[in-house]
Amino acid sequence: MQWKEMHGWTVKMSMPSVLAMVTVFSMIPGGVLSDTRGTQGLEAQQIAQGSTHLHRRLKRGWIWKQLFVPEEDPTPRVIGQLKSDYDRGEFSIKYILSGDGAGDAFEIDEYSGEIRTLKKLDREEKAFYVLQAQAINRKSNEPVEPQSEFIITVQDINDNVPQFQNEPYVSSIPEMCLIGTTVAQVTATDADDPMFGNNAKLIYSVLQGEPYFSVEPKTGIIVTSWPNMDREAREQYLVVVQVKDMLGLSGGYSSSTTVTVSLTDVNDNGPTFQHHLYTFAVPENAAEGTTVGRVMAYDGDSGINAKMTYSLEDDLEESSTFIIKTDPVTQEGLILLAKPLDYETKRRFVMAAEAVNDHVDTRFLDLEEFRDRTTLKIIVEDVDEPPVFLSAVYEWKVPENAAVGTVVGSVSARDTDTVNNPIRYRNVNCLNQKEWDLPPKYSIDKRRDNTKAFKIDPNNGTIIVAKALDRETANWHNITVEAKETTQSHLSSSVVVFIKVLDINDNVPRLARDYQPYICEGTQAGELIQLLSAVDPDDPVEGHHFYFSMVPEKHINPNFTIRDNQAGIVARRSSFTRKDRTQYLLPVVVTDSGSPALSSTNTLTISVCSCQPAGHCPTGGVEALALSMGVSLQTLLGIVVCFITLIVLSILMLVVRRHRRKQQEKLEVEGKELELPETVSQKVLYYGETGPAVPLRRHPRRRERRLRREDVRASIRMSLRESHLIGPDDDVFRQFILDRLAEADLDPYVPPFDC
């Protein structure tokens, strides 16, 4: 028997068992036990020699190494056994397993110490498990061995398919590239253990894309294997690459991916015209800049390699008539008209057009192969053109006193077509055509001639004055003359005629403004009173010059004179006073410098003014008003005060009258409230037996009724005093009674006295 001591663990083994364990362990890399001090080999040799001596090691450092279990094995199996030296087979020792997967993936037989799997394991999920083992005495529940740690490794099998990374793969290479040009690199990964067998060892191959492309088996680098691939023939390729594990051996897994390879363009094609001759037609009246036609040189390349420039090659005379430009979008050559055409002068143009690539690459073609030429033929078409005036614009002058019918000038137009069509002219704006017996040839456009000051001869284009001109009203006349053909097209053209009206001296001069001169009291003889200026609507060439003078009279004006060199009015005498005279009238003659000279007479009113100390005559306020009325300031103030007083009195009278009216209306309202009831007025109807029936009138105001009754009573008392002297049959007494009755009957405010 051989005994081992390992941290208190004692494992009892027979020689056959030891040999068997050694055999098993030799099949498993790393074994089950190892000596951290490098003494395991010596002890194994002693055991193999059958030594019966007991070898004791003090404090030897034994630890558990690792156990192995294959992945994806669904059958539970024993993968190892723990045995304590104190285990005598009496089941007094209890084995306990703890750590990763204990109780879930692994379990230990607490009596025998056998470690077995509980489920299928996956190395890609967990590659190893770290566990702890312990032996406990069942009776004392005390550990008989120190806790020991060991590792169970999950052994890999080929159960994963290799997967490509970074899909999809898209790459591009230039066309015409050399063999072996790198296209792209594909990369695949395998989740199996790369350190165990060939499970994760991959190899690449091409399934689709040969013979144009190939792939490096180990690196996955795709390279070209076909020379001179032309983009114009085929622009895109699909390369299918397959990857296998197990180095491509049978029984392994595989997957594939697609690589899209595009050929980028290089300038390996030059421009080529499809035709050797291009023919175009253009009317002779085409405007400058008109597109005559388009030519296209085909270039199989694309992008910048297809850009080209067109040019024209012809003689010096024709090179300036047409130009050609490159359309940046379509790469067409646009033929444009650069100068006006004339069918009668030149009817055909022949020139060469050339197209040249902007970017050339001499690696693929010669320099001359990047250009091409063709011939352009441009035919000018005849067009019935309108008449053409001999001058683009006409400008004439006419004096403003020109008589009606005066010839101002003539316009002329001709037909430039090959067949000289006679020009028939139409007066489109002339409303009264009785004067024009001939068919109209020239006409004036009325839409642009508002003055209608001129007429035109429809046969020869002579323009005459139609009505009197006035430079001061319109100094320029702009008219449009139209000429029209007699053909069916009735083409016409027009020209502008500018007529300037020249000035003559036909307007009299006049003073520049309405002068209101004044002379101060006490002005001395020879003093300047007023400076004068004049205006004239005429516009003489030498400018205006006016002469001022007084109207020739039989006697010399003793008060004022005019100095022409100063254009001013001067006092002849002194001592002007308002008492003598407040105003003076002075006729002034203004003469211009025209030929013949014209003049006008203007009468000025010179006022005598009581000027202020500074010599200023008031032109506003009360004082100015008094001066204008010819009265003194004191008189004017008195008139104003009287006028204001009358206005105030009138206002007061209106206020009093209005106040009385309001009081009367108020008393009438109160009287209505004091009227007797209707029953009373119906009972009091008669004042006598034989008298007429009188209805009761409105009740009077209380105060007025009281006053009237007091007057009546006083009159009655006085009559009673006199009745002692006069009897009842007296005429006076009878008359008194009748008067009272009449007064009572006529009084609208009181009832009759006999009621």
UniProtKB/TrEMBL annotation:
Subcellular location: Cell membrane
Protein name as catalogued: Cadherin domain-containing protein
InterPro entries: Cadherin, Cadherin-like_dom, Cadherin-like_sf, Cadherin_CS
Domain of life the protein comes from: Eukaryota
Gene3D superfamilies recorded: Cadherins
Record SUPFAM superfamilies: Cadherin-like
Residue ranges of domain Cadherin in the record: 84-164, 165-273, 274-389, 390-511, 511-620
GO terms for MF: beta-catenin binding; cadherin binding; calcium ion binding
GO annotation terms (biological process): adherens junction organization; calcium-dependent cell-cell adhesion via plasma membrane cell adhesion molecules; cell migration; cell morphogenesis; cell-cell adhesion mediated by cadherin; cell-cell junction assembly; homophilic cell adhesion via plasma membrane adhesion molecules
CDD domains attached to this UniProt entry: Cadherin_repeat
Membrane-crossing segments per the record: 636-656
GO terms under cellular component: adherens junction; catenin complex
Topology of this chain in the membrane: Single-pass type I membrane protein
SMART domains hit by this protein: CA
Species of the source: Dissostichus mawsoni
Name of a matching Pfam family: Cadherin
Alphabetical keyword list: Calcium, Cell adhesion, Cell membrane, Glycoprotein, Membrane, Metal-binding, Repeat, Signal, Transmembrane, Transmembrane helix
